[in-house]
């Protein structure tokens, strides 16, 4: 209470711009000083195992005999049947029953990147992580199987969001949506290409033939899928950043997977499409303009592109410069800080499902720290010098907050710690399972469970919800979807973080 009371009072004090830096340094000094009052000593290995298990709860299709979350049953077994295409499988992205391939592919990419960078720290969980990737890639192979088409979604989102129904019972239209050369969709096609290319690297050691198959399928089409399918993908997963970042993201992963100069040449020739470049007197690109260099998530890939290319030994501008600018935009002590922090120290950005930002950004920060270590590099943010240890510390602070080191002493991962969300915004978790309630639950009949104030009858272990508001407050209510809904793209980058800290806990 002492800590949270202090922060509530402190957050009401107004400062003029001249003392902003002083405020930030005091803020984080006090946060560190009082952190002993919060939950500490996390079991990162346990959290890692649970975060992977969450993906089993998001599975669509015919579940295998190895399924561990046994309250989930088969669903979506006829997806694609009406057009003669097998689209069974894949993941539900969040608490609904639609398969949105754009965020699904990004989640798969991040799962693969986590394994590539930190798989050696996963121990016995590595096989489970690879299975989580394979569940996504097997479906993405189906989505790109028909020549000339890329299937980008299964399910009518408007009808689905009008129901509160178990995936096992859903009777809303399972309409398949596709893009083609005539009706282009570069964002989702390129993200699928990135997912397949990244996953091919992840499987290279354990299943070489599968890795080759994934890489061969990594193709893209040019054009915006919002232009083609806007009424059916918006407002759920509109692409607001354009498709150029996805094309470059795909090229970066293909270049890393193949080491082909074809993709490197494409990157060099098209990197200017992201932003207006800054050019020095020798007509060399020194940085990219605008603020998108600091963005990373299922929609915007800019920061990920720069770090991925830097890590691929292309330590040249603009990639290195923009990677450094990204760090300076995130670290709280930086004079060019461009994100917000809650009083308890959680990174915060506008919009819903905020924990997608701390997990994705912290993953990039951790990976950059490891890249920097290899070349004895530091980042200079004005007069502030930031080395790899500080970046690792920052990432750990964000992970620890999620796991319970916060003013509410609450873990935001279901099933981890002594206190965690009990009423999440998730149809399958909130409605009694078929084992307990074998009779069909119709579309509107599920509203009873949506409105209930009782805890979820099914524990979606490992699910990380959207998280607290900017004042570190969390309303444990499934009606508050921006806080209570878990997503695959919150969990996917968290795997890499948890794997690293399970082997490097201090």
Automatic annotation (TrEMBL):
Could you tell me the keywords of this UniProt record? Carbohydrate metabolism, Cellulose degradation, Glycosidase, Hydrolase, Polysaccharide degradation
- EC number per UniProt: 3.2.1.4
Mind listing the GO biological process terms from this record?
cellulose catabolic process
Q: Which one of the record's GO molecular function terms can you name?
A: cellulase activity
User: Catalysed reaction per UniProt?
Assistant: Endohydrolysis of (1->4)-beta-D-glucosidic linkages in cellulose, lichenin and cereal beta-D-glucans
Q: One Pfam family of this protein, by short name? A: Glyco_hydro_9
Cited Gene3D superfamilies? 1.50.10.10
Q: Which InterPro entries match?
A: 6-hairpin_glycosidase_sf (IPR008928), 6hp_glycosidase-like_sf (IPR012341), Glyco_hydro_9 (IPR001701), Glyco_hydro_9_His_AS (IPR018221)
Name of the top EC class for this enzyme:
hydrolase
Q: Which residues form the active site?
A: 425
Does the keyword Methyltransferase belong to this entry? no
Q: Which domain of life is it from?
A: Eukaryota
Residues of the Glycoside hydrolase family domain: 44-498
Which PANTHER family does the record cross-reference, listed alphabetically?
ENDO-1,4-BETA-GLUCANASE
Its family?
A: Belongs to the glycosyl hydrolase 9 (cellulase E) family.
User: What is the name of this protein?
Assistant: Endoglucanase
Q: Which organism is it from?
A: Coptis chinensis
